[in-house]
Amino acid sequence: MKTLPLRLNPGADLRAALSTALSAFHGEAAFVVSGIGSLCEARIRFAGREDVHCVVGDLELLSLSGTLGAGGPHLHASLADADGRVFGGHVAPGCIVRTTAEILLAVLDELRFTREHDAATGYAELVVRPLS
After folding, report:
1. Which of 105, 92, 118 is nearest to 16 (CA)?
2. pLDDT per residue over 94-105, tens digit each?
3. Could you tell me if 14 and 91 are in contact, meaning their C-beta atoms sit under 8 angstroms apart?
4. Domain that holds residue 44
5. Residue 11: enclosing H or E segment and its boundaries?
6. Which CATH number is 63's domain given?
7. Helix, strand, or coil (residue 59)
8. DSSP H helical segments within the chain, as ranges?
9. Based on the structure, what is the number of domains in the chain?
10. Taking every pair of C-alpha atoms in the chain, what is the biggest distance, in angstroms?
């Protein structure tokens, strides 16, 4: 396992930037150890919902967790708005960094994460395989 500390700049799309960083590091499996920062726009899917909720404004990224791999990232975040109201859920594309996002990834050298349809859940779920 190797660690990959990242600082994402203003305007970066959180999901896309993490996928790009993992690819540039030649990794195929990683998980988020820590993630904090700020966003100016968040797109979050709440539990049990199909639609994505969009919030625009000054937002604190209180925590970020999840996995990254060939099937794309699966991330969850806790956010607070300018009034201190906290909300969170599944991170959708379009979460835009406001001032910074400080992320620590753990890259697993000998594994590959993919996402495959799971008949039991109806969703593309994590599949862990050794690298060949």
Report:
1. 92
2. 999 999 999 999
3. yes
4. 2-130
5. none
6. 3.30.1330.80
7. strand
8. 14-24
9. 1
10. 50
